[in-house]
């Protein structure tokens, strides 16, 4: 039951490590690990002199150092790599050290990978003239190593293959390197390159397996001469399709099926022998590419929608197995036992690929649900914050307008001067309400922080001064006195919430405290808490409050207090009137 999370955690750590040290370094280290195991094993086998193969490592170490150096000094590292290749070719010739071919004849896989990375950095980061010079030198040094390390003289076919593969590496590297030389003058090309980099980072496990398989096929191609070249080309195309499959999984599966069908039909005419192995009639690279494409397709569309394409690919593999398993004399495989054995192996690989695809699809679904839940929670929190600000700020001013309008209506006939003064206060409150609404609109449009207002936009470093300003400017129609004993270092979030609690309490006095003559605001520090108390001497209203009651005032206050892990008490006071008390911790909880 715990295997899934452990694997996910391991994959996440591997991905984080890859991003931290960089994909080029990971590939270089993987190539070096391969050469380390392969050459060490060859050094102690029964073929040829013992231990002499280990003399290849100084040259390999030199190329690894140049590749790492190229990340900072590409031009100098390219020159150094050229010197290392030529110098160590002389060492190989002098000591008769046996060499091993990978993508290029007589060069180890580490030397090839290091050379490609040096070529990439030189083309990407150096001036055009310098890049041309150092790349030309590196190409000449590589040709010297390919031809000079062959003891008995290279055949024309082997040299032609080395030229072809080297040209592919050179052209492919330049195609990837040149678009990223200048980000400003060619932003579209750079954007495409960034998408490609993202795709490569997402497919790095598959790329690693395909790279190993392709290296082996390059070796098989050298051993078989020109006969295996068409199969190698099909394998390279299959690998590219599998890597690019996440962009269009269904179309990629169709294209891969067509390439594997072409490879299966061509193979009988190439007269390949056992020096170019095709397990089950399908080259190893195409097997890995097929499994990767199946995983991508099932992960993207599910098993139900992928069934038809999986059936087509399975049919092609079965045909390739029947056609190309019996070699070196190609004939159809008709033995039922052999067919059953290959069918079981094929179904096992298919089942593994489908299972991995379904597991990744399930993980993607869970991740999507988590993200959607987080987005929904953030949206809800933002809506609640805006609702609280709308209720606390705008409703406060509007309540003052209604109270002053009622007073002007009652006293206007008896004392017109009172009505005129009330109209002035109504105008001021309307201007403040309009300003508050504009600030909320800016917040919703992203022009101001969510929940900002005339008080929260201020620093609120002096809570006592802000409370005095709030009480003096309030228009709730009740005389309010205050008792403030506050330090100057009240935390910002605590001060802002305290300001809102007092503001909402005064608004409720204007709306609900029928016959109230006086209100009292107390704000003081008691121990490690800020104590707030707002009381009035009114009585329970016998009519609908001014402007109606939305019922959200106490809800908003409780939400603010809960966010700070405080306590809130609101209700009728023992001696009459209404009392609101809050205790807000001045220090956050650990």
TrEMBL record:
Domain Signal transduction histidine kinase subgroup 3 dimerisation and phosphoacceptor: 382-446
EC number: 2.7.13.3
Domain named Histidine kinase/HSP90-like ATPase: residues: 499-587
A GO cellular component entry from the record: membrane
Keywords (A to Z) from UniProt: ATP-binding, Kinase, Membrane, Nucleotide-binding, Phosphoprotein, Transferase, Transmembrane, Transmembrane helix, Two-component regulatory system
GO MF annotation, one: ATP binding
Transmembrane segments: 21-39, 51-70, 77-97, 103-123, 130-147, 159-178, 199-220, 226-245, 252-272, 284-303, 310-327, 339-360
Keyword Phosphoprotein included in the entry's annotation: yes
Pfam families in alphabetical order: HATPase_c (PF02518), HisKA_3 (PF07730)
Catalytic activity, as annotated: ATP + protein L-histidine = ADP + protein N-phospho-L-histidine
PANTHER family in alphabetical order: NITRATE/NITRITE SENSOR PROTEIN NARX-RELATED, NITRATE_NITRITE SENSOR PROTEIN NARQ
Protein name in the entry: histidine kinase
Species per Swiss-Prot/TrEMBL record: Amycolatopsis thailandensis
């Amino acid at each position: 039951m715990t295997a899934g999370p452990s694997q996910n955690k391991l994959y996440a750590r591997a991905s984080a490590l890859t991003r931290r040290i960089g994909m080029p370094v990971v590939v270089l280290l993987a190539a070096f690990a391969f050469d380390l195991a392969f050459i060490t094993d060859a050094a102690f086998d029964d073929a040829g002199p013992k231990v002499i193969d280990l003399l290849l490592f100084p040259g390999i170490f030199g190329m690894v150092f140049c590749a790492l150096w190229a990340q900072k000094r590409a031009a100098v590292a390219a020159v150094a790599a050229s010197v290392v290749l030529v110098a160590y070719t002389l060492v190989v010739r002098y000591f008769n050290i046996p060499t091993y071919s990978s993508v290029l004849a007589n060069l180890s896989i580490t030397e090839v990978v290091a050379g490609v990375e040096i070529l990439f950095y030189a083309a990407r980061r150096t001036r055009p003239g310098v890049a041309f010079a150092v790349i030309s030198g590196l190409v000449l040094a590589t040709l010297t190593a390919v031809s000079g390390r062959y003891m008995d003289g290279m055949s024309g076919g082997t040299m032609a293959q080395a030229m072809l593969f080297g040209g592919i590496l050179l052209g492919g590297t330049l195609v990837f390197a040149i678009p990223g030389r200048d980000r400003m003058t060619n932003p579209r090309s750079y954007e495409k390159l960034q998408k490609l980099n993202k795709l490569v980072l997402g497919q790095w496990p598959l790329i690693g397996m395909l790279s190993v398989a392709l290296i082996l096929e390059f070796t098989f191609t050298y051993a078989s001469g020109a006969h295996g070249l068409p199969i190698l080309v099909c394998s390279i195309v299959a690998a590219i399709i599998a890597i690019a499959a996440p962009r269009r999984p269904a179309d990629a599966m169709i294209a891969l099926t067509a390439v594997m069908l072409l490879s299966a039909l061509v193979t009988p005419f190439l007269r390949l022998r056992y020096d170019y192995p095709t397990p089950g009639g399908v080259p190893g690279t195409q097997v890995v590419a097929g499994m990767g494409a199946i995983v991508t397709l099932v992960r993207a569309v599910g098993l139900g929608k992928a069934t038809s394409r999986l059936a087509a690919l399975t049919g092609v593999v079965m045909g390739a197995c029947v056609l190309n398993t019996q070699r070196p004399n190609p004939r159809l495989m008709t033995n039922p036992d052999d067919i059953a054995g290959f069918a079981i192996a094929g179904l096992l690989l298919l089942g593994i690929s489908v299972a991995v695809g379904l597991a990744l699809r399930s993980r993607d679904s869970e991740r999507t649900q988590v993200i959607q839940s987080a987005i929904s929670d953030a949206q809800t929190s933002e809506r609640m914050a805006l609702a609280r600000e709308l209720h606390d700020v705008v409703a406060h001013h509007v309540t003052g307008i209604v109270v002053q309008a009622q007073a002007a209506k009652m006293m206007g006939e008896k004392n017109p001067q009172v009505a005129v003064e009330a109209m002035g206060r109504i105008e001021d409150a309307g201007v403040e309400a309009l300003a508050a609404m504009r600030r909320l609109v800016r917040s919703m449009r992203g022009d101001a922080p969510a929940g900002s207002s005339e008080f929260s936009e201020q620093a609120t470093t002096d809570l006592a001064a802000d409370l005095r300003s709030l009480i003096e400017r309030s228009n709730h129609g009740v005389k309010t006195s205050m008792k403030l004993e506050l330090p100057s270092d009240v935390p910002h979030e605590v001060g802002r919430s305290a300001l809102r609690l007092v503001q909402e309490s005064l608004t409720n006095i204007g709306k609900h405290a029928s016959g109230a003559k006086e209100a009292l605001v107390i704000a003081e520090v008691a121990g490690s808490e800020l104590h707030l108390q707002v009381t009035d001497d009114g009585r329970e209203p016998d009519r609908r409050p001014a402007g109606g009651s939305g019922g959200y005032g106490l809800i908003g206050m409780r939400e603010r207090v809960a966010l700070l892990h405080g306590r809130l008490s609101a209700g009728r006071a023992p001696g009459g009137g209404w009392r609101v008390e809050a205790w807000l911790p001045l220090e956050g909880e650990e």
